[in-house]
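Handout, section 3.2

Students often ask what a structure token actually looks like in practice. Rather than define it abstractly, here is a full record for Acetyl ornithine aminotransferase family protein. The first block is the sequence as you would receive it.
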Amino acid sequence: MSKVPDIKIEPPGPSAREIIEKDSNYVATTTKSLPVVGKRARGLVVEDVDGNMFLDFSSGISVLNVGHCHPKVVEAVRKQSEELMHFAGTDFYYDIQASLAQRLSEVTPGNFHKKVFFSNSGTEAIEAAIKIARWSTGRKRLLAFIGAFHGRTMGSLSLTASKPVQQDRFFPGVPGVTHVPFAYCYRCPYHLEYPSCDLWCAKTIEETYLSTYVPPDEVAALFGEPVQGEGGYVVPPPEFYPTVHRILKRYGILFADDEVQAGLGRTGRMWGIENWGIEPDIMTVSKSLGSGIPIAATVFRKELDFGVEGAHSNTFGGNLVGCAASLATLDIIKEEGLVENSARMGAYFRKRLSELKEKHRLIGDVRGLGLMLAVEFVKDRKTKEYAVKERDEIINASFKSGLILLGCGKSGIRLIPSLNVEREQVDTAVELLDKAIGRVGK
Ligand SMILES: Cc1ncc(COP(=O)(O)O)c(C=O)c1O
């Protein structure tokens, strides 16, 4: 294969520009980040419609943990599509859905019997988790973290708290949600320092919220991401989640672990929450599960099940093609040792990014677990003023040289290649990022 990236014509080229114009005319406004128009891809290499070859370090927003179009996923999808594509798995039966549910029950934390509700996207998995929590506890209130992202439908949006634009004009959401602080140590909301802070951000959940205006026996669940994703790839210190979990247990509050972005090997463990040694009551999984075929799963303790037909259901959840892609994905992660590679390459990548921090004053923080890594850009290391414009320019300059990146938080860039990324690809990405920061930081 020729060297990648290989930029033949400055992107977006003429074919790309034509499609972008059509898209802008007819497709609703969403969150478009870069003017890249994909044509085909394999592994970490994406070809655009003008023949440019890009190195993809965005993984389709953390969907392609096994890489683009992995041959085993393609084959599983092809085979299943020829046999049976849809058979309403909520109302009728087929083996592949039951098998995937069993498999997810076995590979998720907690040596107890679990059940699975299937849907098609992260936000739907969260909606199901909210309903399961309310249904099973009879309690109405929910807790979520400041900085969280759990989706954009009205239930999940009510838990989301990472950017004002996500909430603007959509108020009111689902009532009964209270947001509590997260352990964003680089920008501690209490201006304390770890570890002398003694984990006040966790303890205050009980000492302030639950003891003043949020009656604990009305709270069904707390929702949390093991590492905050859209909020800026914020990694809490090791004692944070165990401390929070002990508080929840004292009051019979369920813990709903959102693994939509951190799951399936991304953090160097199969599940992000395994970094913190906690067994959640409910887990939400999507993104990488189907390697590009939409599927989501809400995995929960068996005793929380609705147990009543019609309390919750849908049309496409557990679709056969999605289940086939998911089973293939789980096989690939195991067979190719991708969790181990995520830990190994993540450590190497992080070291290389820390070297960039030594070199560029624009970098305020390098953080992450496994291959869930990010760099936060600041105008000044002392004041930590967000370098938003500079961050955007760095993403754009990287793109022009053939590296696809995505932002996160206010002024961060996430670095989330597929988990089978090779050392040379990491080196190439670091080299391109180095040049882009150098150009912008001048
Ligand atoms: C942690 C987390 N939860 C939920 C969602 C929502 O998933 P979707 O965009 O598939 O609805 C996302 C999406 O980025 C996410 O990162």
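Discussion prompt for tutorial groups: The chain has two domains: 14-69+337-440, 72-335. How would you have guessed this from the sequence alone?
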